[in-house]
Amino acid sequence: MRTFDFAPLLRSSIGFENINRLVDLATRGEGDSYPPYNIEKVGEDAYRISMATAGFTRDELELTAQDNVLIVTGRAEPSEGEPGREFLHRGIGKRAFERRFQLADTIRVTGAGYADGLLNIELVREVPEHKKPRTIAIDGQQPTLEAVNDRKAA
């Protein structure tokens, strides 16, 4: 029996409840996994993407949000090096990258910070008033407060 691992999908999709879009992303594959990152929920409607960008400076990183896509780009500029500095082993990877995150219509990028080799991108879910749940009057009568409280207690 064949099973599907949806974990790669959930790592790069934020704010989606639509499984069809996740399945569409699964068929494309994720590709390169550099640089590593975390997506965490930090509040009721707040999220954070943390990317490990060791070796990059703020000037070498660029964030672009356009058409529900967040693009994080790292340009690995050649280092001038210091005279007399010779590496015997270079294990800290610093190569150019472009990472794309598909965002839901209700997700907005609110800011970013860079500290200790981590790029932290703050996101918030903003649901417009016309998309929020609302009570519909039956026969033009709004439900009484007592009826609403009785339903919540049940």
UniProtKB/TrEMBL annotation:
Keywords: Stress response. Residues 28-141 form the SHSP domain. Gene3D superfamilies: 2.60.40.790. Signal peptide: none annotated. InterPro entries: A-crystallin/Hsp20_dom (IPR002068), ACD_IbpA/B (IPR037913), HSP20-like_chaperone (IPR008978). Pfam families: HSP20. Belongs to the small heat shock protein (HSP20) family. This is Molecular chaperone IbpA.
